[in-house]
Amino acid sequence: NAGVTQTPKFRVLKTGQSMTLLCAQDMNHEYMYWYRQDPGMGLRLIHYSVGEGTTAKGEVPDGYNVSRLKKQNFLLGLESAAPSQTSVYFCASSYRLSGSLSGEQFFGPGTRLTVL
Amino acid sequence: DQQVKQNSPSLSVQEGRISILNCDYTNSMFDYFLWYKKYPAEGPTFLISISSIKDKNEDGRFTVFLNKSAKHLSLHIVPSQPGDSAVYFCVRTSYGKLTFGQGTILTVHP
Question: What CATH code would you report for A4-97?
Answer without folding.
Answer: 2.60.40.10
